[in-house]
Amino acid sequence: MKKYIYIIVPAVIVCLLGFFFLSSESSKNAPTDRRAPVVASMTVSVEVPDEVFFADEKFEMSRYDMHERFDREINSFTYWHSSTLLLIKRANRYFPIIEPILAKNGIPDDFKYLAVIESSLNPRAMSSAKASGMWQFIQSAAKIYGLEVGSEVDERYNVEKSTEAACKYLNDAYRKYQSWSSAALSYNAGQGRITNELSSQQAEDGLDLWLVEETSRYFFRIMAAKSIFENPYKYGFVLKADQLYKPIKFKQVEVKESISDLAAFAQTYDITYAQLKDFNSWLRDRKLTISTKSPKSYTLLIPEKESLYYKKGEKIKVHDKRWITE
Q1: Under a CB-based contact definition with an 8 Å cutoff, are residues 323 and 244 in contact?
Q2: Residues ≥6 apart with Cβ < 8 Å to 162
Q3: Cβ contact 297:223 at 8 Å
Q4: Is the pLDDT of residue 2 over 90?
Q5: For the chain, domain boundaries
Q6: Residue (of 104, 133, 129, 113) closest to 184 by Cα position
Q7: Which residues pair with 154 in a beta bridge?
Q8: Which three-class secondary structure state does DSSP give residue 152?
Q9: What is the mean pLDDT of the chain?
Q10: Shortest CA distance to 173 belongs to which of 208, 139, 198?
Q11: Which of 116, 67, 78 is nearest to 222 (CA)?
Q12: CATH class of 51-240
């Protein structure tokens, strides 16, 4: 046993001396400026601007709570890399649909970012509370704002119709609060909650309220999303045009009679049942029943075959040039 000790101890001493020597040499050659680049990647805190604009309203970021709430969300979106990239890619397909509807209804264009944080621009999104679609309507609110919700048809999953319904809600809320930020907060918490809290807390601005964390963060998440979408490169997101999701071209087919088998219906247009459902997610069953007693019609989107494929060398239409580096 002793002979092994005589061998091991000197070896350990030599190793320690070698490590000490290398460390000393590295220290001598290391940059003294802490701001100098290092081999490992850096995680840099995003700078909070002095002011942020949303729907033509200016929000000063100097007050501690405004500053820290925005700081939390802008850093979350910035370092939530894969998810934020996906949001920008999806926006290239859905913003061209959403924006004209907002404009037609007098809703500020910035409210497209509300859809971003509500559903991640996923028309088929469903929350644990059963809020559904891109604008995340619960069933009762959907019916109030004119959406059909049933076992076969659920228009909360219809991008155009649910956007129209969201516009109605936001216009109602703005008329009540005369503030787009408070209108946005009410979209998350409900108008009853915001109205009651403004009264009980003797406040005039929804952003001054003490609210549950989800609602307290809500408007700042919208503003953070807007900031990144308006300048992705500034926040480290680099995309090329062909990496954005292409807008799909459709043929609109008006249906006035029941369809007993949607899979067979899809085949008549040379598309799969999955493709029919993907672009008409409001179809919630394998059939579509139209009553003869109260006839109505539905418009189905049939994707053009050529539009379903990404082709090498194809120029993807870029909705917002700020999103790409080319």
Answers
A1: yes
A2: 133, 134, 135, 137, 142, 147, 155, 156
A3: no
A4: no
A5: 51-240, 250-303
A6: 113
A7: 149
A8: coil
A9: 90
A10: 198
A11: 116
A12: mainly alpha
